[in-house]
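Subgroup meeting minutes
Present: P.N., E.W., G.H.
Scribe: E.W.

1. P.N. recapped why we're keeping a running log of single-chain structure predictions: easier to compare across weeks, and new members can see raw inputs and outputs side by side.
2. G.H. added today's entry (365 aa).
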Amino acid sequence: FLWTAATHGRDKVRTINLLQAATIILVGLIALVPVTGNGLFLMAGLFAAARVCFSGVLTLRATVWRHNYSRFDRARATAKLQTIVALIIAGTGYAVGRIMDGYGPQAFRAVVPTACVAGAVGVFVYGRIRLRGHAKLLRDERGDAARERPSVNPASMLRLLRADPFYARFQLSMFLLGAGNLMVAAPLAIILKDRLGSGYAGGIGVLSTIPMLVLPFTVPLWAHLLARTHVVRFRALHSWVFVVGQSLVLAGALLNSMALLGVAMAIQGFGYAGGSLAWNIGHLDFAPQNKAAQYMAIHVTLNGVRGILAPLLAVQVYVWLNGWHPGTGAWVFGLSAVVCALGGLGFMSLQRSMGDLARRTPRES
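Output recorded in log:
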């Protein structure tokens, strides 16, 4: 909500470009941090600041997508974007792992600036994008009554959710589904290192490369579905992929099977493919045209909250279970699967409550 309030009535594309540039600079500075206790805090601070800037990009980008693309074209364009992102993450992630295995952890000081140079090229290309109807949008925003303008006050978020109870229920289910997924990576990284003896390349391969390689081949299937159905119905189907994937993560962790974990993360990748679409544009099925950024702001804010809480909870549960009986920490993935299932049930319940609204493709003004 900081970014929606700060940019209300102001140039959206220019702000996106500035925030992207700031993100790259902050990430680049990570390569300079010293290997000390203070360096650790500095690295965390730079990373947090970069995420704050990038949250503005995610929030404001929703307005660009809403105005520039029709529903069908938006799903197709987002699918292509996520395919490119997945291939880059899969390739560079594995390459970084191999480099750090070969040259040691300090190799990040060369890797990070190289990635930032590539990012700077992307910012230059993105700067050429134009927002359709931008002038009219800015006039309308500047003409809004004070009570209709976004505010950094959390009460404004609560007011919007009260005014749209279906979206409030959608975000509750989304919170559960997202939290369940965010509970996987941290304890799985610990298991891969401590129990399976995986190095940087192996850990990144399971956690990132495998799911990201699956995503490009499956995201077009999800895009076809999302373009033709309401996001609530989409999520009511899509959520169960994560339940299956995390159940297999549990089995692989209990059996210490790298092969089974690889299959599990491939299924997770299938889920990430659909999630990458619905996460970016699903809120637009609820948002009026002039409030796309505000709806996305709620989505990003709640994503940040669960991003803070879920991994910490997962690691604490893992440690507690292992302390109670060695080897039982893997059951944390059973908990994550249950949390995802609760989210899926929430979407199914919301679909029934919305009736025809969830069964037909939303029309856009």
